[in-house]
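Q: A reviewer asked whether we had any structural model of the full assembly, not just the individual parts. We don't, so I'm hoping you can provide one. Inputs are below.
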Amino acid sequence: MNLRPILFLVLGLLVMPLIGCQASSRNQIMAASASQVELRSYQSRRFDTADKEKTLRTVIATLQDLGFIIDKADMVLGSVSGTKLGGYSLRMTVTVRPKGAEQMLVRANAQYNLVAVEDPEPYQQFFNSLEKSMFLTAQMDE
Amino acid sequence: MFKRCCLLGLIIAALAGCQAAKVPKQALDLSPEDISNKQIQSRVFDTADEKMVLSSCAAVLQDLGFNLDESCTDLGLVTSSKSRSAVESGQVAGKVVVAILFGVYVPVDKEQKIRASLVTRPIGEKKERVIVRLTIQRVVWNEQNKVTKAETINDPQIYQEFFDKLAQSIFLEAHDI
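A: Here is a predicted structure for the entire assembly that you could use as a starting point for your response.
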C-alpha cells in the first residue's frame, strides 16, 4: 500500500488548523466583526432616566451581583470595567452616555478569555439583570 | 473517493482550529449562589457619610497590605491588590516525594496576585445608610509562570474578618444585608 497520501493527509491535518486561524497576529489590533452595526445594536440598550450617576452605580452593583470584581470606573467617561474569574476570564466594559435629555444609553463590551464576545445572548442576559436592578425597561436602541 | 475524504478532513480541521469558545450560560445569569455571595460580601452601616466609609475602607485595605490601584470616589470605588508568595508546604512535600519516587519534576505554585475591589453605595429613602461590598479574586502562578488558579474568593470568614476591622475603624456596627 502506498503510504504517501496518508502521510500527506496527516501533515495537512496538523498544519491546516494553524493556517485557518490567522496569517499575522497583528491583524487582531484593528480587527472588528463584519457587522459593526448589528454588534452595536445588541450591545446597547436605552433606559428612561436622566440620572447618570444612579445608572452607573446600578451597573456596578449588577456586575458585582454577577460575580465580577470592578477594576475601574470613571464618572466623566461614564465607564465601568470588571473581571469575572472562575476557571475562565470574562472581562466587561460598560459605558453609560446620555441620549437626549431624558435617556441613558448603556453599552456593554465583553471579552471571554482571548476572544471578543459577539454573541447576542450573553449581552441579553446582562441587560436582563440590569433592568431588574434599575427597575426600568431596557429598550433596544434603533 | 480517498482524495475527497482527505479534502473534507482538511476543511473540518481548518474550522476546528478556529472555533471560538462561547461564554458559559451561567456566567451572566443570576444564580442563588450569586445571591448568597452578595450576603457574604456586603454589610450595611448606619451613616449618610459615604466618603468617610470609603476612606476608612481604603485604610483597612492598606492595613491588610493591599496597595491601592484605582479609585473613583464619585462612584464609591476603591480597587487594590497585593502580590504574595503562593508556596504551600503540602505541595512542596508532594513535589519532593514524587521527584524521589518517580524522578518526575512537578511544578508547584509560586506566586499569587490578590485583588480586592470595594464599592460603597448610599441606600435607603433618604440615603441614610451605606452598603459596602468587597469582592476578592486571586490568580496563582506556578514555577513555570503558568496560571494554575484564577478564582473568586467566597469564603465567609475572610470577608467577616475585613468587616470586623472596618466596623472597629469607623466605630459603627456592621449589619448584614
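A: Points you may want to mention in the reply: The interface with chain A takes residues 2-3, 6, 9-10, 13-18, 20-24, 27-30, 34-35, 37-38, 41, 70, 72, 74-77, 79, 115, 117, 119, 121, 133, 135-137, 139, 150-152 of chain B (CB under 8 Å). DSSP finds five helices and six strands in chain B.
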